Amino acid sequence: MDLDPKQPDSKRKTMITIRHDPGIFRFKNMVWFRTDKCAGTYFSNLFMKWGFKRIQFSELRDEDKIFAFLIHPAKRRVKAIVQAIYNANAIYLLNDANFCRFLGNMVIADEHTYPYHFQFKHTHHRTVFLPLDHAKLPLEKTLKKFFHLHCRELWKKKLEDDTIQAHKADEVKKKHYELVEAVLAMPYYRIVMDQDIKLYNETIDSITENIGIHLTEPYV
Length: 220
Hints:
Layout: E1 24-27, E2 30-33, H1 40-49, E3 53-55, E4 65-70, H2 73-87, H3 97-103, H4 116-119, E5 127-131, H5 139-150, H6 152-155, H7 161-166, H8 171-183, H9 187-192, H10 194-209, H11 211-214
Parallel strand pairs: 2-4, 4-5
Antiparallel strand pairs: 1-2, 1-3
């Protein structure tokens, strides 16, 4: 995770920044930042098949073209909380009314709900964000156009539909999403995650208004 260090005093010469890193992957000057609960497993596996290699944040270059995927923060919150419950083998607790009340104002459950605005604090201005859940522009279309503009070698690649289908939630998990979504309160969440919600809404508006400009503006 990324923590803002305190200002150094006269005896303190260095500061250490801890950054949550779900993964940064490079193919030539194309750099993908993996975001948790945004089809990360599918795309990290696929992109590595295409020749992407994992790199460190310190290896970024000025000429790199960074891109990342987003879903609506509220949807991501639900998916992440359910995943945290699964990881703890505690799905049975969704039948407990007290546990559901406990979940009500939960904003960050674990690293899967690490806010977008923290992860991209230092790279927001040079990142093209692509929504996974745009109502009219599926990722297959926007990603294809993005690669057509910036890397023709990747433009020729095809997404593996059978593999992405395998990573989608089954009906049981979808039911758990519905149960958790029903108990989560929104007012406090909207205050805490205001910057994430703003980023998502601006991304949707920008790509809807002019996809060409959206896919190139951060690199101009």
